[in-house]
Amino acid sequence: MRLRLERRPQPSALMVYASPLIAVALTALIALAVFAAAGHEPWSALVIFVTAPVADLYGVGELLIKAAPLVLIGVGLAVGFRANVWNIGAEGQLALGVISGGFLALHFGVGGSPVLLPAMVLAGAVSGALWAAIPALLRTRFNANEILVSLMLNYVAGLWLTYLVFGPWRDPAGFNFPQSAPLAPAALFPILLEDTRLNISVLFALVAVATGWVFMARSFVGFQLRVTGLAEDAARYAGFSTARAVWIGMLAGGCTAGIAGVGEIAGPLGQIFPTASPGYGYAAIIVAFVGRLHPLGILLAGLLMSFLYLAGDSAQMTLGLSSAVAGLFQGTMLFLLLAIDVFVHYRVRGTPAVVPAPAARPVATPVAAEAAT
Amino acid sequence: MGAPRLELRGIRKAYPAVVANDGIDLAVAPGEVHAVIGENGAGKSTLMKIIYGMVRPDAGDMLWEGREVLVRSPADAQRLGIGMVFQHFALFDTLTVAQNIALASPARGGVEQLSEKIAAVSQRYGLPLEPDRPVYSMSVGERQRVEIVRALMQAPGLLIMDEPTAVLIPQAVEKLFATLRQLAAEGCSILYISHKLEEIRSVCDGATVLRGGKVTGVVNPRLESTATMARMMIGAELPEFHHRDEVAVTETRLEVTGLSLRSDDPFGVDLLDIDLTVHAGEIVGIAGVAGNGQAELLAALSGETMADRAAIRIAGTDAGHLSAAARRALGLAFVPEDRLGRGAVPELSLTENALLTASRQGMVAGGLIRYARVRAFAERCIAAFDVRCSGREAAASSLSGGNLQKFIIGREILQQPRVLIAAQPTWGVDVGATLAIHRALIDLRAAGAAILVISEELDELFAIADRIGVIAGGRLTPLRRRRDTNRDEIGIAMTGATFGTTADGGTRAAQA
Amino acid sequence: MIDMAAGILVATVVAGTPMVYAALGELVTERSGVLNLGVEGMMLCGAVSGFMASTLTGSLWLGVVAGMLAGAVLAFLFGVLAISFKANQVAVGLALAIFGTGLSSFIGKKYVGQTVVLEPSALSAALGKLPLVGGLLGQVHPLVWLSWVLLGAIWWFLYRTHAGLVLRAVGESPRSAYALGYKVVRIRYLATLFGGAMAGVGGAYISLVYTALWTEGLVAGRGWIAVGLVVFATWRPGRCLLGAYLFGGVTTAQLFAQGAGARVPTELMSALPYPATIMVLVLISRDARLIRLNVPASLGKPFHAES
């Protein structure tokens, strides 16, 4: 019985919803294997892995506060991905948010103005968008691949932030550690829930989900972006501008990543580190895909990814595994999702084994004689 | 009489939506030119792919020289001695003729020896070729010669030719037939796939007729008339096109003056000094073999490529510099050659595909989509143009070629355009849908629209066009009224004779 | 003065060598029509595997082999998804990069910060005795001049052998190649595996010879730069080498500028390769005709053999 893939006449709606779930389940299986290899009893390790992070209210708060930037960035990136515009520079755009928001916070924080926080958020949005505008411009003007350009800019932004924190912004009272002074209270996001670190950045995330949903499902521009991503020739035929799709796609991600950057320093971190982001820019890509590029799906996927981060941290304490295990599971989940996604458009068919008949001789014709000389 | 060279027994192949081949029997004798006749969608292509190993049948046997064989891939087919000349050539543009042929039969003696062999074979069969020319610089007719020589160098016992005359000017068709007769006389069998009954009667010894996946007749075309073969092919008489009413021709709706455009694509064709007018109430047809600038002209007219402001005027307004969206706002509608991927997005539903170009029909308000209106429009389109589908939410990819084309044309017509441009409107479409589409275009003409049809099918143009011109090498001949010209004249014009060239179509690189 | 020039040249070549391997490997992959963006992940896994193998066995060459295998395994995973399952190659490549990064961090955790001390190469010592070229050859590791041999071999393969012609044909039109009887899927897999193996060697070179240690972020984006270099080279091997050494030169500039006492922040110097890559990319990409004439026409598109 030989198996092969046959294209479905219509994409399977069932698989569209089922494949992320299957991917998660398979990742859990792999987790079991990893735990067993590390010498633990797999099932109880999995239970601990899954329950420890959210065992108390503080844990839930952590879950939400870590999910917020992932969801926020994820929605922004999804707008672009839908249009086949690949913004891989969210990490750098987030860093720009840290830099611009941090600049305002460090220089105007002590004054305590109520305008400071909105200004920081705005600065984050604009600076992230500007950083994303570079690959957008280079793609629309020079046809340069936006994946590579936005990626290169990640490293540049990261180094810029490192320079600032090791240099001009280093906390004089910080024992020479590479970190800034703690941000003034006026530069911090208000906390929503007592005894947790949950702050208003979750509201930003929810607003993004709502806006994203309306934009993608009901707006004409959203439709145009979808068509551009599905069939570029059709988009051109219909008169939809590919250049505009590139700009909107890149800037949406840049904006949201910049705001998320401000959210990190004005939130759980409370000061500026060179590693302000534990790879949120890349994790958000995974969130966007696992969430099926749909705002509601991204909301769920963001919670899941945030959960993996927390579980990875706690796994270090409870299971003695390195926190890198979170990154490993995230990458695995994405891989598995892409593999299972194939069944949305294809199904498996078996062909019965056939016994080959003996091969026949080729025929001798004058043409054959001609060609053989 | 010995065993047939190739015999098929009970071949069956079913796809999710349709049974392409349903119990097909076929026999080809050595040295016979055997036609496989059927309209688009009858199952001819699938059958050929099965013979050539590109598709696996669900049931049935294949016998070669009387012995059962299993062909699981093109490599197996070639080993048996089956060669195929594809409708859409299997060539590599950036490689030379010799390299293309070397890929089919690895040169044992090296490239020089191969070049000599190529020269010998092409001489023998009257198919002149230059081994060192890169394929992208060759015309469509020349490329077909490469395809054929390549197949011949494999020493085939059976040569399959898939719609070979679709890309040839009338004069080249005769040359091809001479080659085929020579091959057959030498003992090579030929399977000739076509739906052009006249040609088949002129060159084929036997014919198997397919309809709806089944064999409806095995005949000698020389003893039949086109009428009897047509009856087997479509179950009825070939429809005669009714003489149309004269329609008063009024204002100029589309005016092209001195349009010259250099192609961005190094493999493309430059347009040179094109003049064209289309009036309200008339259909203008442009004939020409593929690769003579049709794609470039269409892109310039639709707005996908920019031209000089005044070179193109739509309903009296300069439009050469306008985007595709802006031209639609002026009343231009366009039906492209590629249905899936350009005229419609395969993954989207018919409803959403309606939104693709008809959004200006009140479907968008305040930036948001009014889905109720979109759905209503899609329903109207499906009903008015008899689109067979599982409903307006069906994905475009699930429709047959003919039905999707009816939907796309319907979508454009329902927008009541002032100018409609249609490229290859009935390519790959079954006879029933072809009729419906032609009728729809005639009705639109009567309603006062200006229509431009670009087509490779002379029959189509002579059936519906009021005036006809020919595009050759990027230039357009002056338009003639249909009743003032005939197929021979048009055929000669297609060779480029009007412009003093002998190209039967060539890329700019070739003209350089 | 000559010494200084020679020193810069050697440093440039040495710095550029991992890129030569990775870019040449990706070039072969892309010539078959497959776009594998996961080079960064493959290089990282090659680096960590090589490091681990050498630390455990004490042999550099076993480390290189381990790196090659690691790269090939990851490339195989990519192939399953992108070639057999026909998934979107860009998405799978990204996933591979992310997965490879995570996997290498996880596996290499206990080796972070360690260095590996290996015997100086006897081969290099022998070559160093040659007249004229000995001066250069003796100073560099065999993997450096082996990369030149690789360049020659790939050039010969692509333009002088039948198999190379077939590869180029597959990249241009897999449909036509399949119709001629070639096993497109198998050819694409082989090209992809080769690319992965070379990326693995490039990574192993970094962890074993160039910096001779393992840490997260060791490759620092060089895998991505390698992908860009292939575009810069318009898919021709010779230009790949040029691009790799240009990059090597930019990297070296940092060291020499600091050595010459220039008061520039280290981060700025470290950042130079990245905008340099962007500029180079823009320079080539803006010429649409050049790209159209050289790009393997089927690059990035999944191949569906008619079923």
What does this structure look like?
The complex is a heterotrimer of chains A (373), B (512) and C (307). Chain A has 373 residues and is mainly α. Chain A folds into 2 domains: 1-38 and 321-373, no CATH class; 58-301, Orthogonal Bundle (ABC transporter involved in vitamin B12 uptake, BtuC). Chain A is 68% helix and 3% strand. Chain A has a two-stranded antiparallel ribbon. Chain A starts with a strand and ends with a helix. The model of chain A is unreliable at 355-359 and 367-373 (pLDDT under 50). With 512 residues, chain B is α/β, with parallel strands linked by helices. Chain B has 17 helices and 23 strands. In chain B, a hairpin with a 2-residue loop joins β14 and β15 (317-318). Chain C has a single domain, classed as ABC transporter involved in vitamin B12 uptake, BtuC, CATH 1.10.3470. Chain C has 307 residues and is mostly helical. The longest helix of chain C is centred in the N-terminal third of the chain and has 30 residues, at 2-31. In chain C, 53% of the residues are buried. Helix content of chain C is 75%, strand content 0%. Chain C contains 15 helices and no strands. At the A-B interface, α8, α9 and α14 of A face β5, α4, α10, α11 and β18 of B.
